[in-house]
Amino acid sequence: MSDVHLLRRSRLRERCAAHGGAACAVLITRVANVRYLTGSAVPGAVLLLAPGGRDTLVVPADLAPAGQPASGERSLQVRAPAAADEDGAVTAAALAARAGADSLAVEEHDLTVARHRALATAAPGLGLTALTSTVEQQRLVKDEEEIAALRIAAEITDHALGELLESILVGRTERHLALELERRLIDHGAEGPAFPTSVATGGHAGLAGHLPTDRRVEEGDFLSVCLGARYRGYRCRIGRTFVIGTAPSDWQIELYELVFAAQRAGREALLPGTPCREVDRVTRQVLDAGGYGDALGPATGHGVGLEIGEDPRLAPAVMSKLDDRVPVTVEPGVHLPGRGGVRLDDTLVVRPQADGGPELLTITTKELLAL
Amino acid sequence: MSDVHLLRRSRLRERCAAHGGAACAVLITRVANVRYLTGSAVPGAVLLLAPGGRDTLVVPADLAPAGQPASGERSLQVRAPAAADEDGAVTAAALAARAGADSLAVEEHDLTVARHRALATAAPGLGLTALTSTVEQQRLVKDEEEIAALRIAAEITDHALGELLESILVGRTERHLALELERRLIDHGAEGPAFPTSVATGGHAGLAGHLPTDRRVEEGDFLSVCLGARYRGYRCRIGRTFVIGTAPSDWQIELYELVFAAQRAGREALLPGTPCREVDRVTRQVLDAGGYGDALGPATGHGVGLEIGEDPRLAPAVMSKLDDRVPVTVEPGVHLPGRGGVRLDDTLVVRPQADGGPELLTITTKELLAL
C-alpha cells in the first residue's frame, strides 16, 4: 500500500511542478483526497507536499498518537499542529513557508473562505494559488486494487439486499427496512453504508434520495430501495424496484419495462471513448419516447470511488469522454406524483469491448419481482 | 414546530437588519443552521432571507418533491434551483438580487472559496458580506424542546451502553463492540450515531477519537467506550472506562480516581456566569496535580446540539461565559502510551443553582466497574 500512495503523491508533485514551478507547495485538505494520497482516514488530517520532496501529514493534536499513516511508510512524516487547537492547514502553510516555498496550491473547492483567509494570514509571504480538482482528476481512473475494493463493496450490497427479499415486507415501515438493510451491510463486512439508505414505498417509490418515513409497505405498492456498502473507503450503489403482492398491474409493468430499457441503454453505452453526455442521451431518449423524459433528474449517473458522487457526471452538458477502468452508476428513475415510480441503479466499471465490455458489479436481478 | 422556526428566522432577520440595513439579504448554507431555521434536513438545501420578509428554501432539483418543510409552514417557500444541476446557493443569490437586495450576508466559515466566487459571478451587483457565526450564536442557548430531544438522545445512549455491559466482552474486537453499540442505539430509537462510536481497549484505552480496530478485549485491559445517539437531529455524548477481569490493579485505580476527580470538578463548575476557561482550568488542575496535565488535549469539553461539536469550547483561551440552558460535555482523559488510559465523558445542561445546578443527561454509573 505504501508504494501506491508514494507513487500517487509523486504524480501529483509532477503535475504541480509543471504548472507552479519547483518552489510550489501543495496543500490537500479534502478528506477523500488525503486518504487517496496517504491511506490515512484520520478526521481533520491535511497533507502538505513541500518543495524538496518532504511530505507531511498534519493530524489534530488529540488524534496525533493515532495518526501514523495506515501503511507505516517512512516517506510520510506525521505531526501535530504547532498549537494544540490550531487548524492543521494553518500549521501546514507555515511549514511550507519555512521550507522555502514561494506559492501554495490549495483546494479552493474544499477550503472555506474563512479558512483560506487564516492560511493567508499565517504565511503572508506565500502566494495562494488554486489546485482546482487535480487530485479528483487523478482519482478518476481506478487501479485494479481499487476496483477489487469496489467489487467487494458490491458483493456485500447484493448479499444484504438478497436477504431482505427473502423476508416478509408487508406491514413494515420504510424506516425499519432501511435500518435492517444497513445492519446487514455491516454483518457482511461493510465499514458502514456508502450513503443514507433509501427505502420508498407507495407514492414515494421512484423518488431519488427519498429519506425513509414511517409509511408501511402495502399490497399493490411499488417498493424502491437504494443502498450501498463502504469497503476500505470505497462506495458503491444499487437501486431496485419491486412490486408488493401477487401480481403487478399493467401500468406498473409498462413503467418498469420503460425504465429497465432506459437503464440497459445506458449500461450498454459504457465503453472507453464514449462521451459522458452520450450515455445520458441514450438513457434519456428511451424515457422521452415513452413520454416520461421530464420525470428524470439532471443526471442519469456518476462516478463512484472514495466518494459516492465523483466525476464523471453522466449529464447533458458534460464534455468529457469515458475511460477504461472508470466506475460509474447508471440510475434512471421515473416518479409519478401520487402513484409512485421506478428506479434502477447499478454500479459498473467501464471496460473495452475486447475485455468483455462494461463490468457489472451489482448483480442482483433486475427482473420485476412480485414480493 | 412551524412557529419555532418562523420565530428563529425573525430573530436572525432583526440582527442582520441592525448590521446590514433593510436591503440586506441573508444566505444560510451550513446544514445544521438550515435545519435550525427551517426544520428541513434535506441534503444540499440552502435558505434565503430576502428583503421584504420572503423566506425561500432552495432544495436540489432531484429532491424538490421531497423538499416540503417538515412543519408545512406557509411562510417558507420551497423551490428548486433555476437550472437542474445548479448549486442552490447560486439560485438564491440571483433571487436576492431580483428581490432588491443590495448586499448578501453569507457564511464564510461554511462556503468554499470556489462557491463564494460562483455567487459573486451569479449576482455581480450584490455585495457579499460575512455573516460570521451569527446563527451558531443563536443556537447556543437551547429551548426546552431542544433539551427534551437531547434528554431522549441521552436515555437511548444509556440504554445501549447498559445492555452492552451485561454481555460477555473478553475476546471480542473493538470493531465488533462498536457495531453492536451502534445497532443498539438504533434499536432504542436513535436516528443514528451522533458521531463514530469509539471502542478502545488495552494500549488504545483513553485515546480521544480512537477508531475501532481488530484488537480483542483481554483480561486486565482498560476498556474505554465513547458513543452517543442522534435524536431529531440532536446529538449527545457519553464516555466510560472499565476494567476487564476480576479486579483492577493499583495503577488503574489511581489513574481512574484522578480522571474521575478531574471530571467531577468540571461538572460541578457548570453554572451560569462561569467563564468557560474556568471549567477547563478546574478540570486540568486536578490532572496537573497528579502529574498528568500534559496528557490532556486542547479542550476538556464543548457544546452539543444539532452538531456534536458546537460552541462553547471549554478551553484555556476561550473568553465567553456559560449561560443557563447551554448543553455541554465534560470529557477529560489521560492516555499513557503503551499502557492505555481513562476517559470519562458526560453531557450536561448548564442550570442555575436555584434550579438544582447542572443537569446530568447521561446517567450511566461512573463507578469503576470490573467486567
Automatic annotation (TrEMBL), chains A, B:
InterPro entries, per the entry: Creatin/AminoP/Spt16_N (IPR029149), Creatinase/aminopeptidase-like (IPR036005), Creatinase_N (IPR000587), Pept_M24 (IPR000994), Peptidase_M24B (IPR050659)
Looking at the record's lineage, which domain of life comes first?
Bacteria
Please name the Gene3D superfamilies in this protein's record. Creatinase/methionine aminopeptidase superfamily (3.90.230.10), Creatinase/prolidase N-terminal domain (3.40.350.10)
What positions does the domain Creatinase N-terminal occupy? 8-141
Q: Which residues form the Peptidase M24 domain?
A: 149-351
What is this protein called in UniProt?
A: M24 family metallopeptidase
User: Which species expresses this protein natively?
Assistant: Streptomyces hazeniae
